[in-house]
């Protein structure tokens, strides 16, 4: 039996997004000039392009309002998208929300509220995927 080839595959359904369009604009608006300066995004099946970016960030656990409630640690970004960020660290990070501050970029004074949505262990590193909620 021969396989059918779809000439125009259907579009995937939109992914759920718990943020309003105002929150999306707020978070990505603070990063737009940095994203513009980076190379083209990595092409993938994701809704938005990801930009490879390895830079040190300062991260502190916080509540859903962005009020820090623990000690800050240094992490490294692995990629950045208009509404999300990938982070790497050597230790687990238990908080659902974090405040992230870039250390060595033009965004050094921008503080972002991030909600972690995925955690994975890759060898000896912990990878965290987060949604940029808003600037704080």
Automatic annotation (TrEMBL):
Residue ranges, annotated region (Disordered): 1-28
Protein name: PilZ domain-containing protein
Source species of the chain: Pseudobythopirellula maris
């Amino acid at each position: 039996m021969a396989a059918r080839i779809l000439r125009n595959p259907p579009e995937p359904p939109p992914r759920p997004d718990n943020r309003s369009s105002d929150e999306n604009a707020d978070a990505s608006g603070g990063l737009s000039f940095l994203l513009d300066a980076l190379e083209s995004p990595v092409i993938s099946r994701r809704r938005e392009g990801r930009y490879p970016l390895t830079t040190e960030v300062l991260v502190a656990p916080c509540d859903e309002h962005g009020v820090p409630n623990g000690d800050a640690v240094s992490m490294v970004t692995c990629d950045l998208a208009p509404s999300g960020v990938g982070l790497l660290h050597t230790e687990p990070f238990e908080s659902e929300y974090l405040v992230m501050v870039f250390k060595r970029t033009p965004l050094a004074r921008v503080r972002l509220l991030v909600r972690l949505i995925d955690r994975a262990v890759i060898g000896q590193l912990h990878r965290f995927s987060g949604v940029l909620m808003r600037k704080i």
